[in-house]
Amino acid sequence: MQVKTQKDELENYLTDASNLQGGFSDKLFIPESREEIAEILKEANREKIPVTVSGARTGTVGGAIPFGGYVISLEKLNRINEINEECAVVESGVILNDLQKAVEAKKLFYPPDPTEWSCQIGGTVATNASGARSFKYGATRKFVQRLEIVLGCGDSLNLKRGEVFAGNGFVELKTESGNLIKAKMPTYQQPNVRKNTSGYFSAENLDAIDLFIGSEGTLGVITKIELSLLKKPQGFLSGIVFFKDEKDLLEFVEEARRFSFETREARIQNPKSKIQNPIDATVLEYFDKNSLDFIREKFPETPENVQGAIFFEQETTVETEDALFEQWNNLLEKHKAELDDSWFTTSEQDLVKMREFRHALPVAVNERIVRYKQRKIGTDMAVPDKMFATFLKFYEQKLTESELDFVIFGHIGDNHLHANILPKTDDEARKAKHLYGRFIAQAIMFGGTISAEHGIGKLKSKYLNVQYGERYLSEMAELKKTFDPNGILGRGNMFEAKFLV
Asked: What is the pTM of this model?
């Protein structure tokens, strides 16, 4: 195990993709085993020293930034222990891209695909990461079958999905050393949205493993993970489709979503259903006009005089490919897409280029904001189905009135768009933060969530209070204290220290 204390050795571990400033730490540990992590935590717990878990530091809410105490980097827990036809067993420091390549080499498929593929698997579990394919496959939670976790006291849990459930408002877990932990479950209901990473997961008859998925390093340190795998799809039909009228675009999305949900429901009701070539999108992603203007800097072939675009994908076979293309083409014609200017492919090489198109936007946005020496203000809210169109109009109206630079893009299939505001001056930054608060309030008023996929971390803790209120934050804090009585893990993440007193 490496231990580092010099300032220059710690520097890279004091920042993450959030650009939150001011991080500092007394000591960095780079362990290579669960046992070494347990020893670090025993010492920290005894001395009541805060511990921040550091993965690939790709998070955008400051969760990996320490403000004192120890940092435990999981970069050396990077072994893929097993891949078989049903699952992969990995240590938490394995890079997502490395796992994806190893899985694909065996003609298997791991669907979760957050934008930053350099993230670590442990981080994706700790934040319940999702991505574009969540429209069909859901977030990371659906694929986690087993977790090995070291608690703040150094004791360990080994949780398998389906073995331990909450009952009568409590869940009871036995640690590896034989200690019994009885935790009171939060009583709040999850927002009625397709994606949510705001606070601890809650549900009736909750599976104990789900408490730790999305807990952002505040309940324990995840060291090993078993993930379920699927067979690799034979092929994909993909398209980037442009529209001159936003109304046509939104009606297209609504119908594509409806067809997809109907197809899935039919397969659940009758797995042997012989529905011929049904539309069932894997991905539905949105780009507004401003986003396309940014992307055009990297992809000059992007057409002008359009109001927005949709990137869609559907899995195909050799037998269904042509018929599915015809069905999508008919749907696009119905909703007046600019078919002559749009792009379609079934080849792996062109699909890679289309995904590069999608990823060109955050790169271009980051380049622009660095030029102004400011931080972008980005939303991560999602709302219920019936409120989505109204919420999008609210975004567009308020952002246009503000005269600030902005782009709106993201996971329209899940009613989850990112509005990125790009201030050029300190005055514009203050204006953008005020506007962000307006968006938070509106999302909550519509029954939505303040964070659909990025989590809470340190940057959004005050907004979690707005979403749930002090009563439910106190319930979360009580849950944390049950597993981490001295409050050493992830201090400052999710809720403020006052709730842990």
From this structure: 0.94
Which amino acid is located at 210 in the chain? Answer: D
Closest by CA to 478, choosing from 213, 211, 146, 223, is: 211
Q: How far apart are alpha carbons 28 and 72 in whole angstroms?
A: 6
**Structure token pair of residue 354:** 């289309």
Per-residue pLDDT tens digits for 54-93: 999 999 899 999 999 999 999 999 999 999 999 999 999 9
With tokens 């977030």, the residue in question is 139
Q: How far apart are CA 256 and CA 331, in angstroms?
A: 8
Quick one: angle between helices 426-445 and 461-483, nearest 10? Answer: 70
Residues of the chain with CATH 3.40.462.40: 235-445
Q: Compute the distance between CA of residue 415 and CA of residue 391 in angstroms, rounded to an integer.
A: 9
Contacts of 156-162 with C-beta under 8 Å, sequence gap 24+, read: 156/34, 156/38, 157/220, 159/208, 159/209, 159/212, 160/209, 161/207, 161/209, 162/207
Beta bridge partners of 224: 91, 148
Specify the CATH number of the domain 235-445.
Answer: 3.40.462.40
Element counts in the chain: helices (H) and strands (E)? 13, 20
Rounded CA-CA distance 124/117 in Å is 10
* Interacting residues of 82 by C-beta distance below 8 A, sequence separation 6+: 88, 89
CATH architecture for residues 2-73: 2-Layer Sandwich (3.30)
